[in-house]
Amino acid sequence: MRCFISVTLPEEIKRGMTAIQGRLRASGADVSWTRPEGMHLTLKFLGEVEEKILPEMEAALNAAVRGRSSFFLKVSGIGTFPDIRRPRVIWIALKEHGNNLIRLQRGVEEKFNEIGFPQEDRDFTPHITLGRIRSQKNVEKLLSLIEKLRDVELDGFDASCVHLMQSQLKPTGAIYTELYSAGLQG
User: Fold this and answer.
1) From the candidates 127, 145, 164, 184, which is the catalytic residue?
2) Which of 1, 105, 113, 177 is buried most deeply by CB count within 10 Å?
3) 86: buried, middle or exposed (CB in 10 Å: 19+, 13-18, 0-12)?
4) Whether residue 174 has pLDDT greater than 90
5) Does the annotation count 97 as an active-site position?
6) Domain residues for 88?
């Protein structure tokens, strides 16, 4: 099964992101937009795993969150990966005061590395994917709208739980199922 580690988003945050997608859709660009039920903050993509190692993954997730407190994340700023000159992914950023999210993500990397999952080579960039650009159709209009929304801000939320998720790829889009959750301290 295909798995990843994530922080889920409150519904009101998803609604705000969907409204931003609506403003970007006005460009007429050829974008595969992330459905609200698919919006989440990925801390680590695990790939294909065997069901028999679920107990090890649960233990690694527990170890990664042990002693960590919940923290506030602000949804702020929009951009593209890999960069604005070669846009392929449209994202909205997550920011915080302090480094709680970075420390949490590094803890997840470390604990999952201990059970055989390689550490990510690139730096962690906290973001939510809004959409993936499929072709160059109307990309200039899209980039103009992204520039206008560059400093957009939504409400924030408390990150209080980390989830082990399963991702099933379907023709209609990915279906995510929560397999296990580990809470951060109050």
Assistant:
1) 127
2) 105
3) exposed
4) no
5) no
6) 2-183
